[in-house]
Amino acid sequence: MKFAVSLGMERFSPETSMTAVMDNLLQLAKIADAGGFEAIWTPEHHTIECTISPNPFQILTWLSQHTSRIRLGTATLAAAYWNPIRLAGEAALCDHLTNGRLEFGIARGAYQYEFDRMAPGVQQQE
Fold this sequence. Notes:
Elements (H helix, E strand, L loop, with lengths): L3 E3 L11 H17 L4 E4 L13 H9 L6 E4 L2 E2 L5 H14 L4 E2 L2 E2 L4 H7 L8
Parallel strand pairs: 1-2, 2-3, 3-5, 4-6
Helix pairs in contact: 2-3
């Protein structure tokens, strides 16, 4: 059996500093790596008050510098927000920078209000 964990950069209070959010994420990633988890998955979200995660590739590349073996996954990238060629290039570079540890997850997206801001005119349900 394999275990994975979904970790994001959640900030539930404006009083919480970004440094504290990053420190918490890094500590949890290190624990998961040392504890034998198979993968860390981090989401793409835009304009959500408590989640600071506009580009999982950046977060995963950063985490790769502080972990040694755990797989690093996008959970998930919202396909409608990306040009396919740019997305392929970003994924390839992230995989290279993480020494081949990228797990690539892609989906249609979750919330209409994100679509309204990121891909105006596109319906989340299409």
